[in-house]
């Protein structure tokens, strides 16, 4: 059980909740803060004070005063009108992450919602009633309005939810599980949709996958190093300590440990003096990507515990401030950086693939073919890797430097953070397939060398990998091998001892 209080949620917690179905519960003290802020909203409505989002319109309509009798209806119109998302839905895991993050933000007690709203969000997460949320339509300020409006629809019994692998109407699932739709009251609609939880949820899922991929990249690069009889001297600890980047030092250490005991690894001068950069500079390149991942993690964990709606209530409602915490620029920049980090893992991997298949760059059979000429072997695998890497280069264009004014120029600078998060996800998916191709080619190279000469750790990786993608005995449809290896990498952690 993970207790949420708006302040201490971590990436590890989110991984447990979203991937291992850990249940969540509301911290009692935090619920007390929720109650205080709600009392303040009710006082404002009763007194008739003019406060944005409580008894005014939204965006450019902020100067339109709403009558007391209409403040609840205002929230319903807000949710329905803002549910303009389009495109394929987010994965169930991303949508669940959104529910949890929105719940955690409301528990800070600055948003003015009733306890029943946070309890419903908790129940949606725990009962696996996960909203179906279209993935396109957010500008990233004022937060992720369109995606979060689709989340809020489920609270009022509208929209759709995942039911296992199926999609059903929310009202149907509510009836099956005995839930009643909630009627939103003053400020609650705005509190639910005004925030960065969509881009942050996508960012959390991206980070979890990218971190795993960075670890796998070290293993797969180590296999390639052995398959090409690479020079271990370039990984000497003194070189990396001399530069001083901890992540670079860590990658070099991992490569040394993974290849320990190998009879394929060489010393400088034995076969050549230096390797190409794609082998020699693995710690520098992989390490730089890990530096970026550390930055991304830091920003995500801050945002996961942030109050990002507007206005916010402080001092038990005595201080009400309109600001711009919904602006997604911190996450937009983090996602753009994550795109670069993941793209570079694939970029250098594709160059290693080329060295594995190109007969002018190694002494292996051309394109790792069992019968070069008659059979093409892994020739077109490199084409596919090159295509994916090139696609990543276009996706890596920063979204955070773009902006389009909205709401009649009231909202005249936006973050496009959701676009950055979605593109980061695509890059990570592509990078995973590139690394699966490198893994396949690395295993084939080991067979031509003699896999028994590889390090014990690489032999274990080879054994597991071959259970997913068999050796090339003759040309076949390799597409399935690439997809199967990528799917296996997605489900497993490379922990083969080293």
UniProtKB/TrEMBL annotation:
The modification 2,3-didehydroalanine (Ser) is found at residue 142. Its EC number is 4.3.1.3. Signal peptide: none annotated. It is found in: Cytoplasm. The keyword ATP-binding does not apply. Gene3D superfamilies: Fumarase/aspartase (Central domain) (1.20.200.10), Fumarase/aspartase (N-terminal domain) (1.10.275.10). Coiled coil: none annotated. It comes from the Bacteria. Transmembrane segments: none annotated. This is Histidine ammonia-lyase.
